[in-house]
Amino acid sequence: MNELVVIPGPNAVPIANSVALLSGAALSNVHRRVFPDGEIYVRLEHSYLNKPHGALVTSTMYPNQASSFLETLLLIDASKRHGASEVIALIPYIAFSRQDKVFLSGEPVSIEVILKGLHLSGASYLITVDMHNPKSLTAFPGRSTNVVVSDLLVRESLKYVDNPVVLAPDIGALERASFAARKHGLDFDYLIKTRDKVSGEVTYEPREVDLSGRNVVIVDDIISTGGTIAESTKVCLSRGALSVIVVATHSLFIGGARGKIINAGVKKIITTNTVPVAKDEVVEVIDISERLIEAVRELTEK
Ligand code: R5P
Prior knowledge:
Bound molecules: ribose-5-phosphate
Strand content: 25-35%
Number of domains: 2
CATH architecture of the largest domain: 3-Layer(aba) Sandwich
Number of strands: 16
CATH topology of the largest domain: Rossmann fold
Number of helices: 8
Largest sheet: 6 strands, parallel
CATH class of the largest domain: Alpha Beta
Shape: globular
Oligomer: single chain
């Protein structure tokens, strides 16, 4: 691929800066305006415009999921029109990923719309992090990579606890939890979670895993309202766990999610910078830029 230019998109200026700095790639200016009627305008400015280059359009789809998606499409289109031979969409957090199938008659498969839209606007490569359901990526017609970072998160948790049990809050999260646990030689298991498709009410049936006297590290992809983690934590503590640490890739922390999780008994939340998140005495944020750069290199060198 030609010289790579990083295009900083919605919610992703810090990640774009870090990727450009660590990889030595050029960094574009993006002029952005919102017209009085709410429409978004973008214009790229960099020294490779209208000369051959590869564009790394970097954005992340939280907050403002819908407008972030649209702005990402506009940046991809602008890149394609002005010299980019290839566009890589680097989107650490892809919104709408949880609507990955038709749960109730009449629904769309939202994630397929997102992935097809990225490709239609000109992205031939896609890199994301810890996709809710990695199989969804098959809907992207170009090449794609799902960067798994649960091993980094669990490694960080080992600074606080010895030999924990790694626990997925549901079977959907088992693969990322077991990947991290195996990598660090730890026990792992999962809780059986059932969500009512209409009311959204969630119930848990604990598995026959002996948590008594054990430290637990719960691994999940997304913290949204914090309900899943709070309820999973209560299940662990009621079954005799000594302590619970939570590691999650994308921390949206909607409303009082952080407080809900802490009140349930969680001592530490370790997360990443895939979406903007503030660190404090409980929340630790690890930078995954190096992993993203590795993924860009692997994808472009193939
Ligand atoms: C669900 O399948 C996801 O993996 C997360 O567990 C869920 O989205 C978290 O949402 P909340 O924090 O609102 O419970």
